[in-house]
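Hey, can you fold this one?
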Amino acid sequence: MKKLMALIALVSMASVLPGLANGFETEAPSIGVYCWQLAPYGDVVCFDLEKRSGFAVLYDASGWEHSAGNYKIPCSGAVVLDDYVGAYGAYVFEFECAYYPDILWQYGAYILTTTKSGEWFDNTGDSGDFVWLGPGPLSPDFEVKGIGPKLAK
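Sure. Predicted structure:
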């Protein structure tokens, strides 16, 4: 009986382990890298958007916030389509950027499906226009007009 139980356990583990390994190894298909300006500042955020499996319109986002010549900070988040906003819907974008050593800036943005631009806001009460810059990645020295880097305020 013990041998039978051990065999059942071994077969069960053998059937589960490949699935777990495949789950960690497979990557979601990227739909590309896209960039926006956090106006009125000169900061730019660029994200690689990857479709999350099992959801109609949900993307994982990983990328950077940068101000040319000042800083480049890692960010991550998610984008989901809210088709109840306006005539064409809007994307709701939430992301966080880790400002070393002890600040985690949290952002939200609404992006119109028609213009790919919208509005952004953060956890400090700051806000502005979320200006579509197009597909990326952008060159490291890419600079936009603005009132300076966001972290300098």
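The chain has one domain: 30-152. Let me know if you want another pass with a different chain boundary.
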